[in-house]
Amino acid sequence: MNRIGFIGLGVMGAPMAANLLRKGYQVTIYNRTAGKADALIELGAEIASTPAALARASELVMTMISNDDAIREVYYGENGLLSEVMPGTVVIDSSTISPSLARAIGEDIGARLAHFLDAPVTGSKPAAEGGTLVFMVGGDAAVMERVQDVLLAMGRKVIHMGPSGSGATAKLAHNTVVGINAAALMEGMAIAASGGIDAASFLELVGSGGAASRFTEMKAPKLLERDFSVQFSLSLMLKDLRLSSVLSDNLKTPTPVLESVKSVFQAGESMGVGELDLSALAYCYEQWIGKPITSHSHAKPGAALDGSDNLQDGDRSDRRRRQRLQLNIPLQLSVHQWEQEGSFSGQLIDGVLCDLSDNGLQISSPSPLERDMFIHIHFPKDSGLPPVMGRIIRIETIEGTFRYGCLLAGLAPYQRLLLEDYINRHSGSED
């Protein structure tokens, strides 16, 4: 099978499709969000206008999509994949979805005399880029054998888990272990930090002893650098833990640890770090204990957590406010709107940090917002800061640009210290 269709060009899908192209396969791509295909087109990919058009052009179709609802749209929506899948086509879904949906899709594709494999993967963005993913496959073993070369063009191992739905079940069980490992590491680091143990020394110990894990091996360097760039987002892990919780209920399997860890990830999402890497769970524990649990390159030894980092020439933040320096730090703002019971929609808009006051920030943006609206403020990556919740308490209009006074909410004292340190470094007012 040489003509492959690939749907879903996110963090995982784009490098997987790129590896297929590099291995000489003819790849037609489709993505629900425009603008993610340029690099793949340069590698030789063709673009389909709809999932249906992609199905007509492909002998094998792969999907790598974020959740059940998105999968339903791609497979069953207008001009969906199922409307044009041809007899004999092999369709492989590598998303993490509910096993019941995987089985339903398998039945519907089988009714069109085609074949379906649910084949989620383990391995995050680096494994997708390096072609070292592991596929766990549910469905007909003979069909899996037919397409194994295609899967091995993107991964290093293919494991047959059982009949249709078994790949999805195995993935949820696997990610339950990953989520628990993540929370366990952060909790151990919080205990160590509270006891005055250096994070680098503690992580070296964990990696050398009985607590060692693949998760620690992958994340320790990034934790020490406070690099929470996405390899697998916290929100996606929470989605998987929720699916696993539903599955375990249906299987009547008790999962007390899963339920506790799911709650911790829910706390992380509520703090506004859902779109960061799942290791940003560290922020939860930092909020709870009032200090960083990882090393931070900009933290000053012995700095007070109440923000009273006194220097010989006086407090830097007071000095900066006396001078009223105008800042020009780019930000992004997450704006969430109520849709219906239990549901929010959101968008990400651009903004600029203009000034820091005693209780909040002044931000400018070309986008109109409303007084008393709550927003999440995303600082530049080099700040080392998590998103912070703010409430708009003042609005001014200056030459077509809106200026918002934002009262900060839930900012821990040490985070306030890091914010002031970052602003002083950026404005050049630090000696």
From TrEMBL:
SUPFAM superfamilies, alphabetically? 6-phosphogluconate dehydrogenase C-terminal domain-like (SSF48179), NAD(P)-binding Rossmann-fold domains (SSF51735), PilZ domain-like (SSF141371)
Q: Which Gene3D superfamilies match?
A: N-(1-d-carboxylethyl)-l-norvaline Dehydrogenase, domain 2, NAD(P)-binding Rossmann-like Domain
Query: Pfam families, per this entry?
Result: NAD_binding_11 (PF14833), NAD_binding_2 (PF03446), PilZ (PF07238)
Enumerate the PROSITE patterns for this protein. Answer: 3_HYDROXYISOBUT_DH
Q: Give the InterPro entries listed for this entry.
A: 3-OH-isobutyrate_DH-rel_CS, 6-PGluconate_DH-like_C_sf, 6PGD_dom2, 6PGDH_NADP-bd, HIBADH-like_NADP-bd, NAD(P)-bd_dom_sf, PilZ_domain
**Lineage: superkingdom:** Bacteria
- List each coiled-coil range: none
Query: What residues does the PilZ domain cover?
Result: 318-424
Annotated region (Disordered), positions in chain:
299-319
- What residue stretches are annotated with the 3-hydroxyisobutyrate dehydrogenase-like NAD-binding domain? 165-282
Q: Where is the 6-phosphogluconate dehydrogenase NADP-binding domain?
A: 3-162
Family assignment from sequence similarity: Belongs to the HIBADH-related family.
PANTHER family linked: 3-HYDROXYISOBUTYRATE DEHYDROGENASE-LIKE 1, MITOCHONDRIAL-RELATED
Q: What is this protein called?
A: NAD-binding protein
